[in-house]
Amino acid sequence: DSPDARAMRERESPRQRASGESSAAAAVAMPSSSTMPSTSGRKRSASGAVAAVGLEPFQHRLKNSDKDVQATMNTLRTATMEILNLDVHSLSFEELYRMAYDLVLSKEGDRLFTMIDDCVTDHLCLHVASKIADIVGEVEFLMDFEARYQRHCQGVEMLTDVFAYLDRVHVERSKSHQHSIRQMAMERWLLCVVKNPRISRRLGKCLSDLVRREREKDVELSRDVLRKVSTMLFELQEDSAYVLEFESRLLDDTTSFYKAMAEKHIVSDDCPTYLKMVENQLEAEKKRCAAYMQERTHKALFNRARDELLTNVSDTLLLHNTASGFIEMLRSNQLEHLSRFYKLFLTMDGLAGMPDVFYNHLKETGKALVKNAENAWNPMKFVEDLFVFKEKYDIILSKAFDNNRLLESQCNQAYQLVANFNPRTAEFLSLYLDHVLRKPAKDATDDDLDVIFNKAMGIFRLFNEKDVFETYYRRHLSKRLLNKRSASDDSERAFVAKLRNDCGLTYTVKLEGMFNDMLNSVDLHEAFRASHPDLLDVNVTVLTTGSWPMKEQSKTIILPPACERVCYNFDKFYHALHSGRKLTWQTSMGTADIKATFPSGEYEITVSTLHMCVLMLFNTHDELTTDNIADMINVEPEQLMLSLQALACVKGKNILTKYPTSKDVSMDDVFSVNSSFSSKSHKVKIASISQKRETDEETAATRHKISDDRKPQIEATIVRIMKSHKRLDHNSIVVEVNAELRNRFLPTPAEIKKHIENLIEREFIERDPTDRKMYVYLA
Predict the structure, then answer these.
(1) 3-class DSSP state of 294
(2) Edge to edge, what strands does the sheet with 771-777 contain?
(3) 44-62 burial, b for 16+ CB within 10 Å, e for fewer?
(4) Residues 6+ apart with CB under 8 A from 158
(5) Which of 45, 411, 472, 542 can bridge 430 by disulfide, Cβ–Cβ 3.0-4.6 Å?
(6) Which residues, including other chains, have CB under 8 Å from residue 173's CB and lie 6 or more apart?
(7) Residue 443 pLDDT exceeds 80
(8) What's the alpha-carbon Rg for the chain, to the nearest Å?
(9) Spatial distance between the Cα atoms of 437 and 686, rounded to a whole number of angstroms
(10) Sequence-separated (6 or more) residues with CB below 8 Å from residue 442
């Protein structure tokens, strides 16, 4: 017996308990007396002797009569109907439990289960379904439908309690009844009520109409009853009732509803207005899903709405809408609309083509900027426009696109393409920094300069050929240092430190060597002046060959005697300190301060060393031709013509006069001192005539020199890699060479192959005889 049965018997009267025990005994099959020895007990007599008493089992089963079984069945049938109607005030659940228990023990479980099934079916088909179908009104219909379901669940709970023994014992062993009473009752609700033709057609329509009315009027209609009905359908049979009666119809209606909405608004609204509408609709749809739909429906329904409102119109009407679409938003920097655009497209796979459109827009906009003819001869405007371009789209990327990795990758690729599209970008960036470091804004603080440096580094990082920038930056830095035009040494070092942090110490070793030379020259100059106080005051800067960009001098300029005497004495002084070193005088990199007396007054004129040599000739000559001057100071005619142009053809600084008068200088032109020269300032500075940017010929020469400097770097890198690995295939060498040299430049595979062949000829490496793709290092 189960614990429940034993507990019930203890609460019953002795007569009921005896009846129950006899029934139990009748239901237990016992061996006959011929096959099972009797159990003996012992009884003590009055004399104290012990006598044996025999206890024998029942010799046959005790069965309830068919009449008793039928009576019990009728009683349980009536009770079942009353329970389903929730009319239980006159019922004794203990008595009903005992009756069901007796029937199960009497092997009447199948008959009992069938009876319960019939009662549930009759109750639902004859009394419940017809009443639900007769309800007038959509909301009232659904409310009555759900309320009767709750009454049905209450009745089923009571039936489960009454027939608990049937569920636990008979149903588990039965071959004809595989479901519990609860499962059977819910299946009958599904078949008799939900799938009733009158109810089924109306149920789906009512649910769809209520959702549609809520979408159209944008108000919450009967969400509580919708939630309860959808939950009921889902609990009945997930793959049947909920899907067939609610989800499938709802998804189809969603597609139709939002397709019509998209067709209506895409024609009348501009892109920002349309996106605002889509955002509101999708947000409302999410709330509806959370309010009364099952979780399995959320994603499918949202995707249906999104596909009709966005995916099907995204390409032509949103991304490529030139009037108000994505590209126009980018052009006019509409951060709010771009943010909404991104958040909506983020719900689609791969952002639905948005990264490609973003990349193409950046590429075309950037190309137009760097190809602008107005900026070709204005490095300052060129770089500032590049700063504005990058800053604009960096802000869009961070504020509107939340630094999305896919969009950020496309953005960086476009930046890199734009930065390397114009071969002069590196030169122009260096010229821009040269201007900033020589003449910063009057109210510029260190923080302001740091902002400019960070912007410059943002462009610098995009260069494929960083060594080109280094070449130009060294050239401009040398002029600032030697001519003492730097506004601040701290600012100079601060930018070099940023370069070092990005590219490593090897990239900036020459730049830092230039600063060291300037510091060492200060001490050297003081020592020289102390030992030669009577000589002309000359400030000599000793430059380390290799660190400074120096042009080869085909001719040595003949200096004035006083200057020659200083140079001779400095040579002796320096070699006494550093034996074995060679000094070469770079007159093209020097400057001079000279005093000149004119009828208008005395002036202090700052000029280049070459200008000084020319002007000093007129202390002993009244007139000289260009050809005469070139012979007397031993200078190239082209270089001299530029110097004479600066001394005679610049208005307000024309110390010399030229005949015939013109802006160009020829070898036959005659020069003399301009006696009518005057200036408001006592100090006059004569600048050399030169282009701020290189000519095409100079650029070609610079590029050729950079290419020559790269050759030993590539070969040294290959040798270093092969020495480390001993044996390596061609593709691996290419990858490792690019990885090591990426902070300076990116050699092409063809260049690397060419240098590998050169190293093979010079017997640094060789090909593996057994595998021609492999190379072996030769010690």
Answers:
(1) coil
(2) 727-729, 771-777, 765-768
(3) eeeeeeeeeeeeeeeeeee
(4) 83, 88, 93
(5) 472
(6) none
(7) no
(8) 51
(9) 21
(10) none
The tens digit of pLDDT for each residue in 47-92 reads: 444 444 444 444 444 456 778 889 999 999 999 999 999 998 888 9
**Residue 705, both tokens:** 């020199």
Tell me the C-alpha to C-alpha distance, in Å, between residue 703 and each of 387, 423, 472, 706: 25, 10, 11, 5
CA-to-CA distance for 763 and 760, rounded, in angstroms? 5
Q: Which of 651, 647, 652, 648 is nearest to 680 (CA)?
A: 652
Token couple for 13: 């009267």
What single-letter amino acid sits at 366?
Answer: G
Whether residue 18 is predicted with pLDDT greater than 50 in this model: the reply is no
Q: Can you read off the two tokens belonging to residue 627?
A: 């050809």
Q: Is 367 helix (H, G, I), strand (E, B) or coil?
A: helix
Whether 652 contacts 641, CB under 8 Å = no
Contacts of 612 (CB under 8 A, 6+ apart): 560, 592, 594
How many Cβ atoms sit within 10 Å of the Cβ of residue 678? Answer: 11
Alpha carbons 473 and 477: distance in angstroms, whole number: 6
Q: Which two tokens stand for residue 93?
A: 């659940």
Phi-psi region of 381 (alpha: psi -120 to 50; beta: other; left: phi over 0): alpha
Terminal Cα-to-Cα distance of the chain (whole angstroms): 94
| Cβ contact 422:376 at 8 Å | no
The length of the chain, given as a count of residues: 779
Q: Residue 671 pLDDT more than 80?
A: yes
Return d(Cα 320, Cα 356) in angstroms, integer. 11
Structure tokens at 199: 């109810």
CA gap 178, 741 in Å, rounded: 75
pTM: 0.73
Three-state secondary-structure class, residue 145 = helix
Rounded CA separation 464/459 (Å): 11
| Contact between 114 and 183 (Cβ < 8 Å) | no
Element (H or E) spanning 592, and its range? Answer: strand 591-598
For residue 306, the SS3 value is helix
